[in-house]
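Today's session is about reading a structure prediction critically. Students often jump straight to the picture, but the first step is always the sequence itself: look for stretches that repeat, for charged clusters, for runs of hydrophobic residues. Only then move on to the predicted structure, which in these notes is written as discrete structure tokens rather than atom positions. Here is the chain we will use throughout the hour.
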Amino acid sequence: MTKTTKATKTTKTTKAKYAALLRGINVGGNKKVPMAELRQILDGLGHEDAQTYLQSGNAVFTSTTDRTPAALARDLEDAIEAHFGFRVPCLVLDGAYLRAVADACPFPAADLEGKQLHATFCSEQPAESRFASIDAPAHLPEEYRVGDRVIYLYAPNGLGRSKLAEALAKPAVVKGLDVTTRNWNTVAKLVELTRD
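Below is the predicted structure for this chain, in token form.
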């Protein structure tokens, strides 16, 4: 009589580091989200190693790769709404994507101050037609370039004085997209924090 043994299947769970970018919190006392509570929310969702960077809605965490970044963002938006009573748009980006964004930067990031270079992350790839109304030469020396779900903005005098930033934030460009902007210092730090 032959004895059969069942092979035990072991499934290895793959994990990755992600950055969550929250839009429009802790500005002028509106939509106050303390970073300690944001870390608790991320822990409550089953993520690991949650940490925050600055007070403007940047968090990094480790999670399994069985869910898409968009699904992770929806879970976080739902959890924030349940906890605070208001909804906050979130983008969740994996470390590999953030490194690709940094590597593909069309401007000389190493030669610029962090406040001069910005990345506006988009929930979907913006179609070229969205930018038809922008007269790029009229905004020089400010410039923009469109990358993979990101708009790079060179604003030599900073974002607060940028007329091109105003043009890129108009509904014709961003309507229907979740977008959030970070200066290059923050982008570089998020790349570092999400490195495996």
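Discussion point for the tutorial: The chain is about 30% helix and 25% strand.
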